[in-house]
Amino acid sequence: MDDEVVLLDFCPSMFCARIKIALAEKGVKYDCKEQDLLGNMKSQMLVELNPVLKKVPILIHNGKAVCESLIIVEYIDEVWSDKAPLLPSDPYQRSQAKFWANFIDKKIWSSGRKLWRTNGEKLEEAKIEFIESLKPLEGNLGDNKPYFGGETFGFLDIAFVPFYCWFYVYETFGNFTIEPHCPMLIE
User: Full-prediction pTM beyond 0.85?
Assistant: First the structure.
């Protein structure tokens, strides 16, 4: 019997993009149910499957809902463990990947969000905060490593790549360039 996999998605969401990347890495076929989140009307399915937070992404695997992007990526890694491991097998390395993914969700997300929601003096502060939040992450990348996990694309890369895709938006709204401050993240 084949697995039934459905993703409740919102195309512009970097959190939903994580799930699509993880499923692609694992070679898992899925149906996508795009949610219209631009208005205040959330679908009944979304509210029923995530009654606490009422947000996407939601992965439905054989009728069971899994919520929150990093939890879903970890779930995907465990369920389809026979291909392309996403989390390191070493417990310490795994804890570090989870720490930095959490850092992305807390620091990069909040400081990036400020960039497109503020102006004037507060915008200048938001630019500095955003750049400062990227620097420790760039330090974790290290020299001459193509991925955060070294030579292997994995959990932390999946957590970060959708944010990287928004860098142009951040730069445009903030009227600045990231590359001079964090060149390794841009390469």
Answer: yes
